[in-house]
Structures are given as structure tokens and as C-alpha cells.
Amino acid sequence: MVLRGRAHVFGDDVNTDYIISGKYKFKTLDMDELARHCMEDLDPEFVSKVRPGDLIVAGGNFGCGSSREQAPLVIKHAGVAAVLARSFARIFFRNAINKGLPVVECDTSGIRDGDELEVDLGGGRVVNLTRGTTLDIVPLPPVMMDILREGGLTSYLRRHGGFRL
What's the pLDDT band for 165 if we cut at 50, 70, 90? Predict the structure, then answer.
């Protein structure tokens, strides 16, 4: 699975309330409507700048805070192809995989806003096409790669009826 897009860079400790504010959570279940507010507390222009296939890049502890499944869904519905971070909050990481949003652990310190990136999940690397650098990523276990290929856990289980051993 190879993804290519522009980097939208954020810092450390991006919590789920920054991804989608709780003030919107109870107003609608329409993910496309919620996606209009993705990351707005950190960057009010984010949704107008992001293009399908772009990537969120962050520091450590991305997705900390409450365990909202809406957070990875809102990112996905905003058109973001994956999130790259030095580390992820445990529950956000699993929610993202379960919802079909690739999450990539790597050293993001050399990535700048607007850099063009190519993420090779299977090959275990991120190529910064703008800067000519390559980063190794923490590989995802095969079952997580299978879940992502199917578009999320529900699709995976519908297709396979359980986990393949």
C-alpha cells in the first residue's frame, strides 16, 4: 500500500478534542458534516487546504484524550490518507486501524508543512520527495495491514468471517 500526498504538520499531544471538538459530536452523526470541522481549533483553514490523499504529520502522543471513534473517521472523511506521528495514543491507534485510517509511526522531525511525501506501508518507509530523504517506519503487523486493505475492521470481518490465522 503506497500513499502520496502533501504534509500538514501539527505538534505534540494533538488530542481528540482538537481533531473534532466535542461541541460538534452531539449535533450530528454525519461524518462529512463533522469533517468540515476537522482540526479547526489548531488550524481553522485546515479543511480548506487539505486535498484528497494528503497526510497529517505530528509529533508525539497523537490522538490522546477521550476514546472517540469519530476522531479517525473525521480525519478520513476530510480526505486525509494517513496520519504520521512519532507516537500515538493507544486507543486512537486501534480506532484508526479499525476504521481503515493508516497510522504510521516514524521520526517526523524533518518533515515540513507542504512537503510531498510517499508512504510505503508494505515497504516500511516514507520518502520525502521535497527534501530527498527517506525515513524508516515502524511496520504494522500483517493482520493490521489486512484490516487496512479491507477498509477497516467491519469490512474485514464481513469478508473473512473472523481473523485469518
Answer: low
- Give dist(CA 99, CA 85) in Å, integer: 18
Q: Where are the domains of the chain?
A: 2-160
pTM above 0.90, yes or no: yes
Backbone angles phi, psi at 42, to 5 degrees: -95, -35
- Please name every residue paired with 117 in a beta bridge, in sequence order, or none if there are none: 5, 128
Which class is domain 2-160? alpha beta
C-alpha grid cell, residue 111:
518533515
Q: Which of 142, 114, 141 is closest to 129 using CA atoms?
A: 114
Nearest-angstrom CA–CA distance, 96 and 106: 16
- Integer Cα distance of 86 and 131 in angstroms: 19
